[in-house]
Amino acid sequence: MTYKKITGTFIDEITVDIPSQNWGPQEWEREFDTFAEAGLDTVVLIRAGCGERLACPSKAVSDRVATLPVYVDLVRLFLDLSEARGIGFYLGLYDSNHFWYRHDWRTEVEINRAFIAEMWERYGDSPAFRGWYLPHETTDSSLRILDINTTLAEQAKSSTGLPVLISPYYMGRKDIAGAQPVRTPEEHRRIWEEIFGRYQGLVDACAFQDATTDLLQLEEYTKATVEAARGTGIAIWSNAETFDRDMPIRFPPTDWRKLAHRLDTVQPYVDKIITFEFPHFMSPNSMWPSAQALYRRYQDLIADRTR
Amino acid sequence: MTYKKITGTFIDEITVDIPSQNWGPQEWEREFDTFAEAGLDTVVLIRAGCGERLACPSKAVSDRVATLPVYVDLVRLFLDLSEARGIGFYLGLYDSNHFWYRHDWRTEVEINRAFIAEMWERYGDSPAFRGWYLPHETTDSSLRILDINTTLAEQAKSSTGLPVLISPYYMGRKDIAGAQPVRTPEEHRRIWEEIFGRYQGLVDACAFQDATTDLLQLEEYTKATVEAARGTGIAIWSNAETFDRDMPIRFPPTDWRKLAHRLDTVQPYVDKIITFEFPHFMSPNSMWPSAQALYRRYQDLIADRTR
Amino acid sequence: MTYKKITGTFIDEITVDIPSQNWGPQEWEREFDTFAEAGLDTVVLIRAGCGERLACPSKAVSDRVATLPVYVDLVRLFLDLSEARGIGFYLGLYDSNHFWYRHDWRTEVEINRAFIAEMWERYGDSPAFRGWYLPHETTDSSLRILDINTTLAEQAKSSTGLPVLISPYYMGRKDIAGAQPVRTPEEHRRIWEEIFGRYQGLVDACAFQDATTDLLQLEEYTKATVEAARGTGIAIWSNAETFDRDMPIRFPPTDWRKLAHRLDTVQPYVDKIITFEFPHFMSPNSMWPSAQALYRRYQDLIADRTR
To answer: What is C6-305's CATH superfamily?
Structure first.
């Protein structure tokens, strides 16, 4: 069996909790060249807008929510840079960061239904436009999140024919689970059997965030995920997190040994590995020197695993 | 109307919550060269001392408070570097970080009265010495802060003839206002009418911290500030904050799009724009690569707005 | 009297609260070259393992605790790099980060007794292996910590003949002391007289963390430490902390002026000065540009103090 490399990355522009690197078109061009050199074939813009901020102009959003001026059309920029390098681009939807917290999930859906149509009309002819990403992260089977995600997946899929990706987190670590109890692998399997049942035919791939379990239990959770998805046709990817959550500085590039362990662990179980996210945390162009070093360690690892 | 660039910066040496870059005379010389290239004509040392730490030797402070040894006279260094480049230097007063929190504002004032005299005697013949900065930030009209600031402004002004600058914050965001309610623009106007009334003839310029409102409301607050100052002769500047307060890492360079929006917004209303602060957050010499990139984005913006 | 430079450093690999720089053998070789240039003769690996993570393979630990795969033998790497440069290497023991918090100190000791034997058998013939470091930091005289440390020191010393180092913290600052009252220098002396009494003949050197007191009181605490150790044969070193604890970003390189003050202060009292820690916080190879600048400032200081 060949070793599966990281072949995709999120891009976290319209950042929520990760400081902007303040890249312009030139820096992004350099970064997409690096993507290609690193063997990435997939780029996922995690969200096209959040609250008052937008990654591209959107009448669908601005008609319904007060928004800031848009200084650059990052969606067009990323599509063009992807196209020139044969990279497939997934577009993340809009997250109001408001309505779905306020028990107003229908407004969140309404904005996004208009947003999907607008985006498809404007960018649909780009050959790099290859999928949609649902940014409202699923953690449990409460009605709201399932209703948001199934409605939006259905709309995105039926109107464009493109695949739909999600990237939920495990409840497998105390600091992630918060006030709730840590979910066992068996509970995880049972809950996700139900969720995947609802997502069948709507969601095409699911990449769990691989650092949201205890490191020693990642294999169990990954197996449970594969079992839960069996028969649904949903591909199981892994989201190899290249940042650390458990440091006083939030968030630095992760320790390469943790990443190596997680990459090794998921190899037999997943169809594809992507990361959150290359530009800040593993790029030789990152603002963090330790991200640049992580990239060198990652290359050493790949050289070792594939020789 | 010509586009107003950033023409001044604070320097945060004697840092309180921003890590030192550990620059020596050579690095500061390079930075002042960059100031000149960037078009800065004003440099404001935010405070000449804080608690036990001093930016220059001061008998006025050390006689009254236990202080650490002073390894370098940063005031002299900054005055000389300013003079050689035609930059005007504003000197921030001493903040005990103690007395005025302890309902002992008279001691805070007493130390600073002696400090002003000492500084003027030592540095008053420098042609770069062009003003004073009051570091005790004003937020409301409680007697204490008004008494501190009016007394010190009066002393600084009458004994030296130099102008006096303040840079208060808005109470326009929940995370800034804390336990207090967010202040509306109308409340802001009313409160500052009273404060500016007290400052008339004593304070020459007021640069509100532009990121202490909701981004979408900055224009309203700026207008309210201008109205409040009308007829007082106090010039309204803007303090364009080049750092972000709302990230888990506190504090990184801001996202250039937020800065662009804030700079665009205040253009019609203010007399001058300064920033907190160039060396850490927007300098090509900063320890943060994202600050170096912010400077490039800022230059792109200025090129676009002035072509 | 000649000025005492920093002649040793911790290495914080298997980091707990400091992000990894993701260095590989080449980066570590460069760093050890820098150690030699900087005049370091002592390197202390702060811990050889923590919880599920190990800096080298260890059957002693892995037989008793679930551990992650070990990707590189850092102990061998550091011993070899030390040997080639005439540097003495101190090996920190294993910290389960679990048992001794759970009132199960005997398990912590049992693992470490086997660990000491294993390490000595494997690495004992390296001429660079010069001492042991006890990573369970002592703060008070509660039985548990004294029992752990005296038992382990006894075992390490009697079976290998190498010296034993500790690096406790003062309870001299409110933010360090937490819920407990800040300890006065006199209380510090009294408590450590008892502890040093217990450590006599077992512990060879004690390097208090120099930034865990109020800066203005460091001299008093240092004097009290020297008095407490009098007659015990325990050498008093200083651990010059090159990071800052009191910034919102935890942890950045310290301000050089604070470091200069602390180095100056301890000069008359201590036998040797080491730092926590050079690679992250004072190395010209650090990921922090302000660490690179701290190194330049440190060299300026040394040039000034030794001319």
So the answer is: Glycosidases (3.20.20.80)
